[in-house]
Design a protein that fits this description.
15 strands, Rossmann fold, 14 helices, 402 residues, single chain, alpha/beta, seven-stranded parallel beta sheet
Length: 402
């Protein structure tokens, strides 16, 4: 009974703070190596801004370009960027280990940038997306919420362990370490997933996939249309990675019975192949597609789940998370796991046979409302911290000298 009354009192005070116009301040730390982290954080930030939250962003690389001029953020700040180490043209866990010294120097610079920003901005909560130099937040006891799918990666990897040749070092040294980091150093980890399923640990909370609002609207408008057969294909969009590890596909010397739109690479536009380079806004192009060929980034894959169109997922070589993402697409009937060497051949062979060879049945629906669920969790955490700091903190009174 006492706990029930206390819960009612907390809810009343939080509502009173909201009605009184108490503004919540949130700081996002976003990895800028690719674009996927920025696009999914942007979807959540728009929700927070609509709720009256003041949002500040600390990012790097592509993130700086993406967030520039966005009206939903109060301020934009830059920091150094981590990187993936490679060996023989592939991402390698052992190469990452050998780069520990250089990465440690980058981490020190990132911590300094964060500490300097925290001297100016006092957030009620911090949200991190693939950022790890967070000790300044912990020293100030600022709640840390992560948007991260490492828990999904670990769970799904063990389902495909025998097939995971050539990526195990990257999994154990990078992806599993990522899971342990978030499990131990974050107050809450929001783990986007297309289905409602349990998590491996109580510190993780699975939410729906996070997709851009424009994608969600266009996908809803197209949801009544049936999936086309391979010979009905008119447009196939190749969405290659926005990071430096974009996969190379050779389109030379081939004739295609449908239009190909390539995003993420520059090239010579000819015939029915069009190169768009890097596009910050590609929602209209995605809506026109009948099928996708993508690298295995989770944000790009999430938007393909929203469209429910046949998707060929091409993991960056040596990247354990992207291998898992491609396997997930295959398991849930979205599409196929391919390589840069056989992607075009398999697509053309399916067109010749007019059959999506080996495609599994899809569930009736995928969960794609993760942006709203994430914003709700962030606001609740921030409000609780604000309540504790303003209501529960003992008042300090100066006593007159005797």
């Amino acid at each position: 009974m006492l706990y029930c009354l206390l819960g009612m009192f907390v809810a009343f005070v939080k509502r009173a703070m909201h009605n009184a116009g108490v503004k919540i301040t949130c700081l996002f730390l976003v990895n800028g190596l690719g674009l996927g982290n920025s696009t999914r954080c942007h979807a959540v930030i728009e929700r927070l801004a609509t709720a009256g939250c003041h949002v500040h962003v600390l990012t790097s690389g592509n993130g700086m370009e993406y967030f520039e001029g966005k009206n939903c953020i109060e301020s934009l700040h830059s920091m150094e960027s981590f990187y993936y180490s490679t060996c023989g043209g592939k991402i390698s866990g052992w190469a990452m280990l050998k780069s520990a010294g250089s990465l440690a120097k980058l981490a020190k610079a990132k911590r300094k940038s964060l500490a300097q920003l925290l001297d100016k901005v006092n957030p009620d909560v911090a949200v991190i997306d693939s950022e790890y130099a967070i000790s300044p937040l912990r020293r100030r006891r600022i709640p840390i919420i992560a948007i991260n799918n490492s828990e999904v990666v670990v769970t799904e990897f063990f389902k495909h362990y025998r097939q995971a040749k050539g990526i195990r070092s990257h999994f154990w040294l990078v992806e599993f370490s990522d899971y342990l980091f978030h499990r131990h150093y974050c107050d809450l980890v929001l783990s986007p997933f297309p289905l409602r399923t349990p998590t491996r640990h109580a510190n993780f909370k699975r939410i729906g996939l996070i997709v851009r609002p424009a994608v969600k609207e266009r996908a809803a408008a197209a949801s009544q249309k049936e999936v086309v057969s391979p010979r009905q294909l008119r447009t196939v969009v190749f969405m290659l990675s926005g990071s430096v590890h974009a996969t190379q596909i050779n389109f030379n010397g081939r004739q295609f019975p449908f239009s190909i739109e390539v995003v993420g690479r520059w090239g010579e536009t000819r015939g029915n192949i069009t190169f768009h380079g890097r596009l910050m806004e590609n929602t209209a192009l995605l809506a026109r597609a009948d099928a996708f060929v993508i690298n295995g980034g989770y944000s790009a894959l999430s938007e393909c789940f929203a469209y429910r169109k046949p998707t060929f997922v091409l993991p960056v070589p040596g990247h354990a998370e992207q291998f898992v993402n491609a396997s997930l697409a295959s398991d849930l009937g979205l599409g196929f796991r391919v390589t840069e060497h056989d992607a075009l051949e398999r697509l053309l062979e399916m067109h010749r046979q007019d059959c999506w060879i080996g495609r599994q049945p899809m569930p009736p629906a995928f969960e794609i409302n993760g942006d709203a669920e994430a914003a709700e969790a962030i606001l609740a955490c921030a409000a609780e911290r604000r309540w504790h700091s303003t209501i529960l903190r003992p008042s300090v009174r100066l006593q007159p000298n005797p």
